[in-house]
């Protein structure tokens, strides 16, 4: 009987708890507030990021012109900071609705952050390195770089990681603290270098005259060439050819395309002028032997 009475009391308490209208109203209101906070935070993030993108968009004809590389990098970074900051505030508001005192939580977070700072030194190093990469403008979104012997286009720069997309499509992710050496191909003009091989029998003065015509035409047709191409003269003497070197200053990271175009134009014009481009030849000499 005592056991039956015990279960009856438990049932009565559970029934009273489950049928408490005020409790369910409070729970429903709390759930609605949490859902509203989540939706509102997402809306605020979208609106603020849209405003950030509008502020950092490129404006033609503006009196204040900024490097587009740096603008794109700052736009991505500010969007990330806005997103993390708003979501962090939303989490704090949800915890407060759940009745959790935030003061001990913030104190614990500070102590935990200090412990993490000592234990996760690589994470701290990544963040500090990322800050200096952005502050010093070592490279920006859209730059073609070589990082730790991997070459590609920078897709994203954050405080912790950098994403680089290679020309074959792979995306390489580097923790900023591991970036030891960077070569940036997008900061300064580059130099297209073409070595032209002609046979020893050809007149070098005539060859240089033809090359001057080709280079003058290329400077007009190829918008990536920013200065008058130069003929440096005989660069080397090979086993069967004379090598003449030609250079052209180009816009940043456009020298590969200019090289290909110059080679095609030079080869076509030399052929049209009857100037021989050397290729390996085998000469067989037969002689009469004596016994």
TrEMBL record:
InterPro entries: LSM_dom_sf, MS_channel_1st, MscS_beta-dom_sf, MscS_channel_2nd, MscS_channel_C_sf, MscS_channel_TM-2, YbiO_bact. It is found in: Cell membrane. It is a multi-pass membrane protein. Its main location: membrane. Keywords: Cell membrane, Membrane, Transmembrane, Transmembrane helix. Residues 123-186 form the Mechanosensitive ion channel MscS domain. The chain crosses the membrane at residues 27-56, 77-99, 105-124. Residues 81-121 form the Mechanosensitive ion channel transmembrane helices 2/3 domain. GO terms for cellular component: plasma membrane. It comes from the Bacteria. It holds the Pfam family MS_channel_2nd. PANTHER family: MODERATE CONDUCTANCE MECHANOSENSITIVE CHANNEL YBIO. Belongs to the MscS (TC 1.A.23) family. May play a role in resistance to osmotic downshock. This is Conserved hypothetical membrane protein.
């Amino acid at each position: 009987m005592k056991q039956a009475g015990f279960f009856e009391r438990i049932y009565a308490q559970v029934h009273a708890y489950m049928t408490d209208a005020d409790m369910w109203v409070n729970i429903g209101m709390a759930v609605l507030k949490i859902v509203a906070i989540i939706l509102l935070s997402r809306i605020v993030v979208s609106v603020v990021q849209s405003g950030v993108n509008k502020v950092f968009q490129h404006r033609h004809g503006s009196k204040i012109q900024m490097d587009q590389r740096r603008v794109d990098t700052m736009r991505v970074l500010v969007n990330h900071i806005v997103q993390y900051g708003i979501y962090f505030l939303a989490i704090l508001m949800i915890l407060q609705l759940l009745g959790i005192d935030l003061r001990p939580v913030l104190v614990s977070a500070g102590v935990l952050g200090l412990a993490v700072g000592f234990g996760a030194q690589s994470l701290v190093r990544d963040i500090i390195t990322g800050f200096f990469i952005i502050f010093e403008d070592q490279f920006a979104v859209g730059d073609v770089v070589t990082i730790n012997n991997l070459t590609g286009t920078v897709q994203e720069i954050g405080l912790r990681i950098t994403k680089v997309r290679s020309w074959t499509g792979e995306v390489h992710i580097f923790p900023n603290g591991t970036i030891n050496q960077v070569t940036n191909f997008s900061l300064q003009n580059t130099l297209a270098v073409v070595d032209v091989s002609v046979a020893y029998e050809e007149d070098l003065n005539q060859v240089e005259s033809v090359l001057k015509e080709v280079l003058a035409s290329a400077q007009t047709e190829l918008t990536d060439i920013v200065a008058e191409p130069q003929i440096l003269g005989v660069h080397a003497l090979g086993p069967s050819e004379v090598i003449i070197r030609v250079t052209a200053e180009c816009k940043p990271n456009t020298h590969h395309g200019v090289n290909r175009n110059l080679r095609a134009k030079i080869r076509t014009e030399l052929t049209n002028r009857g100037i021989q481009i050397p290729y390996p030849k085998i000469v067989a000499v037969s002689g009469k032997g004596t016994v």
